[in-house]
Structures are given as structure tokens and as C-alpha cells.
């Protein structure tokens, strides 16, 4: 039988360290899972804080703002969805959601409240560290680039993005996008008229060669809700049946 939570060390509980790669708050009421996850993150160079329930997580986040939160969905009292909502009230913070169930509904719920990624228990702690690395890498401001280069600001159909500032607008009004929503919009804006399969979007936007494709579906739906005049009849982010999605820079009515 697989032992997904083998401890990487036998020393004392890891704690935040100065000079680490970033601060990660691990929120899980299972002390074994929390200890193992914290241990692997600590070995990877992260400063790690821990909380066993929602109120404690919010208190610790207020005292020391984390760069990312690893958040269990099924917490006692205040569940992970509510914790995620309350954390986001105080500003954007990347969230990797943990769920003990394999139900798609649970995973979709986590993505719907703005989680940037999720991992289903039991999981490989090494894989979780890779997911944390990936989310944080995309969350951090990009190095300055040539404004006219391929990664500089761009726009179409009333939408514009500034990758260096992580800022997106629609007709001059700033959009409240999550990390992945911003990356997805930026990618589509840079490739107008081209249809992408969900597998391609997962690889190009998320940087994964594997994963649940419903992640892409949910993020497209959320993004449509923020950029389309009528999300039920999208004119910008079109579904290409049998393929995936395409950004239509003209935003005209479909035939």
C-alpha cells in the first residue's frame, strides 16, 4: 500500500525561517498531513506556518501575510471555502486547495471561490511542492521586459493587460482576476483567432502536462463572467466544439 505521507525528517516541527523562498501557511486539521506537508515545504526552502482550523488560519494570516496558502477543504467549523473567501477579502493570495474526496463537485467548488490549484488526498508531498512552486512562480511579478516585446502589455476588444503590474482592464475599468484567470486571459489575448484544446491550455497556462481538465473549464467560465457582456452568450471567449476555446478579437455575434 502506498504511503503518501511519509515524513521527510524526524526532527522538530518546522517553523518560519528568515531568508526562505517564501512564506506558506498550511491549514489542515490532520496533524500528520500538516506535519508532512510542512516538512517537505521546509526542506524545499519555504518558511512554513501551520493552522488546524479556519479561525486560527485567519489569525495567522493577519499576523504574517503568507505568499501562498495550502488549504484543506474539509475543516471543522469553518470550511476551506469560507476561509478562502475571507482570506481574499484582505487582498489576493494564491491558494492551493486540498480535498479528501474525489468528487468533481468538491474540486469545482474550490476553483469557483478562486483557488489557484487543488490536490486530491492522498497525494504525493513532492507533487504538492511542485504545485506550490508553479503557483508562486506565476504569482510573482515578472522581471521588466521590453514594452513592445512579446510579453509586454497588449489588448483587444476593449480588454488590456499589463503583465508587469498584473493588471487587466475592460474598457478602462480594472478587472478583479485571480492569478490563473489573469494568465488565461493574457494567453488568449496574445493568440487571437486560434483554437486551443483544454490540454494545450493546461500545458501553456498552468505549465502542467497532466491534471483534471475541468480546471480549465471552470476558469474559462469564471473568466467569461468577468469579461463578457453576456456570459451566457459569449462573444469573446468562444467554445469551439470538439476542440476547445478561441479568443475572438472582433467580439461579433456568432453565426
From TrEMBL:
A Gene Ontology cellular-component term? cytosol
Single annotated GO MF:
transcription cis-regulatory region binding
* KW DNA-binding (keyword) present: yes
Keywords (alphabetical) are: DNA-binding, Phosphoprotein, Transcription, Transcription regulation, Two-component regulatory system
Q: Superkingdom of this entry's organism?
A: Bacteria
UniProt keyword DNA-binding present = yes
Under InterPro entries, the record lists: CheY-like_superfamily (IPR011006), OmpR/PhoB-type_DNA-bd (IPR001867), Sig_transdc_resp-reg_C-effctor (IPR016032), Sig_transdc_resp-reg_receiver (IPR001789), WalR-like (IPR039420), WH-like_DNA-bd_sf (IPR036388)
The record's DNA-binding region positions are 151-249
Task: Tell me which residues make up the Response regulatory domain.
Answer: 23-136
Would you tell me the protein name for this molecule?
Two-component system response regulator
Q: Which organism is it from?
A: Streptomyces collinus (strain DSM 40733 / Tue 365)
